[in-house]
Design goal:
- The complex is a heterodimer.
- By secondary structure, chain A is mostly helical.
- Chain A has two domains: 1-31; 38-220, Four Helix Bundle (Hemerythrin (Met), subunit A).
- Chain A is 75% helix and 0% strand.
- Chain A contains eight helices and no strands.
- Chain B is mostly helical.
- Helices cover 61% and strands 2% of the residues of chain B.
- Chain B has helices at 2-5, 19-42, 46-49, 53-75, 83-110, 112-127, 143-174, 199-208, 224-237; strands spanning 192-193, 251-252.
- In chain B, strands 1-2 form a two-stranded antiparallel sheet.
- The radius of gyration of chain B is 28 Å and the shape is elongated.
- Chain B starts with a helix and ends with a strand.
- Classes of the chains: A mainly alpha, B mainly alpha.
- At the A-B interface, helix 3, helix 4, helix 5 and helix 8 of A face helix 2, helix 4, helix 5, helix 6 and helix 7 of B.
Chain lengths: 221, 255
């Protein structure tokens, strides 16, 4: 298929390619590449792929050094299952509200999408709040970045994750604000919200892994 | 692929809403998470826990893989999306998993003797610091022995430092051996605590003080490293039941 075709008749191209996303209507305005796919989405998936390796290494490193701390409190001394479960639940729910925002936008319903984005951002911000509390509590118990291998690997891993959540909160808030003010090209809105959603869900799955492998496995050993 | 998906877009060109499916999935993921969270609590029931002991960890991993797949496949819509997206995400994910497993394999093979040492150390630390044994004085020949020696060294240093801090600050009220003194300080050698006996509980007791500072807060007087060491030291006193100690105040703790 040719690029011109993709630009002039997105419906046909998309269907011919078996594209089942249903978000056909706006392809003419979104910058598509020669495959008829939105570049921004392609870029996001490529980025998330690289993020897999990034977090994979951080989590792997945590395990590599697990149980080799020479000083300071150990994971079982500081972890609290209560706090972690609350923040896990918050992030899980935020993934649901994010999916609902994307869905609402595909239904061309920006007001609903905006509301779900706001809820998602609030849940994310609360998650970050819990992490700040958790970190300060751990420091109070004598676990600092430089205390031990546990301290270093734990803070670097969860800190990078928290940083990603923070970036996501800012992104989603900006998006909600811009939708609210009507500053974004309506034709591009669905893809913008969808791509933000991809990032947000990714941050959630990283936490799914950290929660299970770092926290829960610690408790059942 | 296409036939099944043509009904995806209705006459107005809008895709069908997935709202219900998303909410259903959200509920399912919540249930799975609740099960995961329940597992650590199940441990309190050895009758159920012990017979299936080898199952729990793999079960946790399986549940987490399920959640991972559900979010990526449904919420992120990767299942049934274009091949190129699947390729872009899944191939680096495979690399990440390989890195993870390799690191795991390295930990097991390179450090097996070391790893065993660690396991013992972890138990020692949980039980409180073990008194250092006299070393033979010979230079440890292997890397892992050096690690072990470093552990023993760190433990001994912690123990000595903890004891020193105890003798300086706590002895006056809690006695030479932690047996306690009437009206001054509780017995620290029994297995009974008013404020809890975990590392966290003891740390908070010592750092922040208790009973309106009758047990004085040490956060200002001792560095956090010293508090930690003294906590490890008093954990090692637990269960030594020095004769003539003060009576139990509070609850007996199992661990």
């Amino acid at each position: 298929m040719s690029a011109q075709l993709a630009a002039t008749d997105p419906h046909e191209v998309a269907d011919a390619a078996g594209h089942d996303h249903g978000d056909h209507g706006h392809h003419a305005v979104v910058e598509n590449n020669f495959m008829g796919l939105p570049n921004i989405k392609l870029a996001m998936w490529a980025f998330l792929g690289s993020e897999c390796m990034f977090f994979g290494s951080l989590i792997g490193t945590y395990f590599f050094y697990h149980g080799k701390a020479l000083a300071g409190p150990l994971p079982q001394d500081v972890f609290s299952i209560g706090i972690t479960s609350i923040s896990t639940f918050l992030l899980l729910m935020s993934s649901l509200t994010m999916a609902l925002a994307v869905d609402a936008m595909k239904q061309r319903n920006p007001a609903t999408a905006r509301n779900f984005l706001v809820i998602t951002a609030l849940l994310g911000a609360t998650f970050v709040g819990f992490q700040v509390y958790e970190f300060s509590h751990f420091v109070h118990l004598g676990l600092k970045l430089s205390t031990s291998l546990f301290g270093s690997t734990f803070y670097v891993m969860t800190g990078f994750h928290g940083g990603h959540v923070t970036v996501g909160v800012i992104w989603l808030s900006m998006l909600a604000l811009l939708i609210h003010k009507g500053k974004l090209n309506p034709a591009k809105l669905p893809i913008n919200v969808e791509v933000a959603g991809l990032y947000w869900h990714f941050v959630d799955i990283v936490w799914i892994v950290i929660f299970t492998f770092v926290y829960l496995l610690e408790f059942i050993q | 692929m296409s036939a099944a998906h043509h009904d995806h877009a209705d006459a107005g060109g809008l895709p069908h809403s997935h709202k219900k499916a998303y909410i259903r999935l959200g509920v399912l993921l919540t249930v799975v998470t609740a099960i995961e969270l329940g597992l650590p609590f199940l441990k309190a029931y050895p009758d159920i826990w012990m017979p299936f002991e080898p199952v729990w960890a793999p079960l946790l991993v399986a549940l987490s893989v399920f959640k991972f797949g559900a979010v990526v496949g449904e919420f992120m819509h990767l299942r049934g999306d274009r091949r190129i997206f699947q390729f872009l995400f899944l191939s680096p994910l495979a690399i990440a998993v390989i890195i993870f497993l390799l690191l795991g394999a390295l930990t097991v093979s390179l450090f097996l003797p070391f790893g065993e040492g660690i396991a013992v150390t972890a138990i020692d630390v949980k039980a409180g610091y073990v008194r250092p044994t006299k070393s033979s004085g010979a230079e440890p020949p292997l890397a892992e022995d050096k690690f072990k020696a470093a552990f023993a060294d760190a433990k001994a240093k912690n123990f000595e430092a903890g004891k020193a801090a105890y003798d300086k600050v706590c002895k006056a009220c809690h006695g030479d051996k932690g047996e306690g003194k009437a009206a001054l300080g509780f017995n620290l050698t029994d297995d009974c605590y008013k404020y809890g006996g975990t590392f966290k509980d003891l740390y908070v007791t010592v750092a922040d003080g208790r009973a309106g500072n009758k047990m004085p807060a040490q956060a200002g007087a001792l560095k956090s490293e010293e508090i930690r060491q003294v906590v490890y030291y008093i954990r090692s006193l637990k269960g030594t039941n020095v004769p003539g100690g003060q009576p139990c105040v509070g609850d007996k703790v199992a661990d």
